[in-house]
Amino acid sequence: MIIFTLYVTYLAMMKKNFIVILGILLSSLGFSQNFSVELKWEDEKLFSNDYQKMKSPYFNEENFVIHPEGRLDFVKQWEVNQPINEASIQIVNPVFETISTSRLLDLNSDELLSSINPVLSNGLARDKRYAMLRLNPIIKESGVIKRLVSFDVSYQNASNFSQNTFSNQPITNSVLSSGDWYRFSIHRTGVFRIDAGFLSSLGINTSNINPQTIRIFGRGGKAMPFTNAENLFFDPEEIAIQVVGENDGSFDSGDYILFYAVGHEGWNEESDTNINSYIDNTFYYLNVNAQNGKRITQLNEPVGTPNETIDTFLDFQFHENDDQTPTKIGRRWFGEDFDVENVQTFPFEFPNIDTSRQGRIKVNAISTADSPTSMQINIDAAVIDILNFTSVGGPIVARADSTNSLFTPTSSTMNVVLDYNNNGNPASEA
């Protein structure tokens, strides 16, 4: 059983110029706090779980976070007596050292940002206040890769706070508790159009509504965090929409609604999957005739001379069928069986691909065999990696292996070929 994701870099079909707008953020008044940090780097450490193996440079264990897509975070948490001003964070005297691309090992150079982007946040756990700092320890500046060696942190306590700053959210009624609501579903992320016919299919008499009062609510189909404390939202939120033809106060046959909705597909770092396994459809809620709705506002395009041109972007496609879980327990689901059809091919197409840049393929697979087996991963004729599964037995009912490998694309079309070697045992399954 397998799931996999393929990343490549595109040449953009059209070049788009951007203007970088700089601003100054002034810290609010409060007591200043300072401390210093040193990152003690090691050249290589292997990280693995049931589904993935990855080699990475390494630093202080208590501050090190590695993500499945091949990037690192520096994270530091400490106890505080009062809330901090999150906007006051300053990284002072940063010291970097230049490293070669080869020293990234399995890290994805395309995930590197051009700055450390420090983020300071407040937290509360077991009635204790905490501050947490998160930043990028490795950056790519003008094509040069640098890693952070040391820095000083400066921030300020929040002014004008009360002991109730982090009190529990009061009990309130849902926005859905009153009024007439109409539920509809979407299947994927994108911009959607609703016309008079669709509204009628929901049971709405379009001749009796003021289109300016049409409202749509929802939060998309992404999976909620596993930890309850990380679920920050109580209710669906109103999203901004565009209602074409609403100015005359009637919803006519040629009028329509445009809005952006988020489906249940998309990379989830916590579960290491591309699909929310708990739902098949994403629901949104429509309300009319209560009050004027939230609308998309027009932004003014910046004027001036662009100082950066972007002509490539990172794109990805995935193949994931969450059909079965051989172990019958846990949150991990898999797709195709390789017990009968040992060799299977999965075609991908990336138009206008940039063949000068490397791609990355991730494959997760599982085997339930009582003897060692393996799976070879090819892209067209090139062998990318071989997954190895040791035998099961006793309390071990399945073995997993994975790859997160670089490859060089040669054309816009490519075939991923997975070849399972059952080691001569027809009862082996993968």
Q: Helical stretch count?
A: 1
Give the number of domains: 3
Helix content: under 10%
**CATH topology group of the largest domain:** Immunoglobulin-like
Note the run of SSEs as H and E.
Answer: EEEEEEEEEEEEEHEEEEEEEEEEEEEE
Beta-strand percent range: 35-45%
Q: Tell me which CATH architecture of the largest domain applies here.
A: Sandwich
Largest sheet: 4 strands, antiparallel
Mean pLDDT score: 82
Distance between the termini: 5 Å
Order of strands in the sheet with most strands: 21-1-23-26
Write down how many β-strands occur, each being a DSSP E stretch of 2 or more residues.
27
Cα-atom Rg, whole angstroms?
A: 26 Å
Describe the fold and architecture:
It is a single chain. With 430 residues, this protein is an all-beta fold. It has one helix and 27 strands. Strand 18 and strand 19 (273-275) form a beta hairpin. The termini are close together.
